[in-house]
What does this fold into?
Amino acid sequence: MPATTATRLLLWVLAAAFVGIGVVCVVVATDADDAPRAAAPAPTAAPSSPTVAPVPASRRARDVLRAWDDARAAAWTTGDLRALRTLYTPTSAAGRRDVAMLRAWNDRGSRLSTLTTQVLRLDVVAESGRRLVLVVTDRVAHAAADEVALPADAASTRRLVLERVDGAWRMASVSPERRARS
It folds into this structure.
């Protein structure tokens, strides 16, 4: 297989894996609208316990998630492992996977240059000053790495748990979530 084809195949597979870990799709458009939005800044808002039925996203939860995702996108587009690691709690499996994937991209000299996520729905399951539990349905609408456009993905729904640690919102867990059709 020619090197160019192998590189493109590897980038496609890595993009699919990147999308599959769940946190790449965590950009929240203002008022959870369905217009694509390019990634941008870092976290600031509040969370609670997951015993409450989902409700439409509060502005505070939306802002926390947008800031977190923007900081994550910045870490990925600059290849900054330290910045990426600080976005997760120390015990976050999603964080370990995300950092390992970025390290692999860096080791190959690859860089994610564009990432546009489309948020289709955002529900707050629980919200307090220290914990935020969200159910997010979104998809990667556009991504590029090393001047190669990567495939858009299908919409997926995930449960995200963010915790406030030392004044900053950190991702504690990301897990698949089945959403009942409404």
